[in-house]
Amino acid sequence: MGTTVATNALLERKGDRTLLLITEGFADLLRIGYQNRPKLFDLNIVLPDLLYERVAEVNERLDAQGNTITPLDETTARASLQSGFDDGIRSIAIALMHGYRHSAHEIRIAEIAREIGYTQISTSHETSPLMKLVSRADTTVVDSYLSPVLKRYVKQVNDELGADKGGCERLMFMQSNGGLTDAKLFHGRDAILSGPAGGVVGMVQTAAMADLDKLIGFDMGGTSTDVCHYNGEYERSFETEVAGVRLRAPMMSIHTVAAGGGSILSFESGRFQVGPESAGADPGPASYRRGGPLTVTDCNVLLGKIQPDDFPHVFGPDANQPLDRDVVRQKFDQLAEKIQNHTQSENPLSPEEVAEGFLRIAVENMANAIKQISVQRGYDVTSYTLNCFGGAGGQHACLVADTLGMKKVLLHPFAGVLSAYGMGLADIRAIRERQIEKTLDADTIKNIELLFDGLESEVRKEVLDQNVEESKLLIERKLHVRYEDSHQPLIVNYGSYAEIKQQFEDLHKTRYGFITENRSLLIESLSIEAIGQTEKVSESARPVTSGAAIHPQKDISMHSEGKGWKNTPLYLRDDLPTGQKINGPAVIIESTGTNVVETGWQAEVNDFGHLILTLSLIHI
After folding, report:
1. Residue 136 needs a FRET pair 20 to 30 A away by CA distance; which of 289, 349, 390, 427 works?
2. pLDDT per residue as tens digits for the range 257-309
3. Can you tell me whether residue 157 is helix, strand or coil?
4. Phi and psi torsions of 68, nearest 5°
């Protein structure tokens, strides 16, 4: 299962009280950070709240080679730990200079903390054994801050399921890196993208059943849209920032934009604006009968793409009424009048044209997010399939694909809940990282081979101990390589010197458009991953029916840009047989979402019940 408990605790600053122990002279390091200005022209910079409640400096110092500059003052360290404990703090984060490479002082402080009675002890050499003290310390603080929250949640779920009494075979959680792990091994640093990571796995695994392997993931929910890129292997970010906190932990590479079904529409300073504010679940969109503002969802209600009669009747005081189309019409009338009063146009916009305009802006925002993770990194998305999921994704899939020049869209039967479904398709994974900072040459490769072997035994044991058979274990070795004196590494597979160099140059050429001859390469760090392949949920092919195609349930009136209102067929997805083709415009509804087939697109049901939407040559 996945959880947003850690994410919410981080966003709302509701983790456990935490004490940070750091090398003397660096007490303010995390407050100073990298001195980035989040908004360049703001005069009043409001910095995010720090996670730790208290910081204590430790009189110690090791240099980068492990030589002792200042011995560890255990007396002072113990006094600081005891003071925090006496004040009720039970979580500590220990991050010392060069602790990622020389951990003796961190280990000793952790031993003292255990003697005193601390229940959550996070050390930087275990949490994030990499260079850059700022992000390493931040990651360690996050782990200490969130892990107790997670442990309480895991225990609650465990007790409710009766897992220790045979209530379930085993309890596993989705990690931010896209792998499952035993509940007892689930840490705060690995839980930030627990939910969205399931969507990435679901996207890849379901597309594989349809023989599709070049994918853009498009997960549109109520508040935001998550997008990701896949071209044969999962892409991960090893350094990111979440809620103002710098993290160095492997996470699925997911880009988020504030455009969802609940994104609020506004007309300010002569401009149409969509988001970033969201109506949330309460009050929700105007159509939810809670007095909410106009949102993207309301655009689709007005334009007939969402039919109140065919949407769950869960609104109103008694939660038994349909969506309120009348209030949506009224609010769009008022907004159109406001726009006309401002513009004094000779051709005033109709409410439908206003809704189409806002929808176009939302689509552009989502398409631009996809461009950032694809086109701007050298990938041609026109040869990719848009795997669309999330509760609001099917309503906008064709529009987003059209904007990007994509010609194929995949909609799985569980697209509305694919993040949850993907967790059942995920493998068990364990990852370790180590800093190297060595020039790439034959001698370096020999040395890191030994380091790889040692780390492999760790990840292998962690996965095998979770009831994975040896025959189902895969090991992947990766190197993070960059040009010397450059900043951004690229991830390549481990191999011979020639293989590593060739992979790097191919990637660099794709990403940046050039390579530099006769320039030394640097191995910044390495990572190793053990993958325990799990039993996949199989989807059996549906029998091909020889009967006539299913007729639409009814005709509805839907507004299409430039074509006005038009009679449009509405189908029930569960009724569609294998092989049926439906030309757009059409609406296909199902239990977890609404799918709009726009003009110029054709939907076909494949052997597994997937909807494959393709750009048709015939525009109706």
Report:
1. 427
2. 878 888 899 998 888 998 788 887 788 899 999 999 999 999 999 999 999 99
3. helix
4. -80, 115
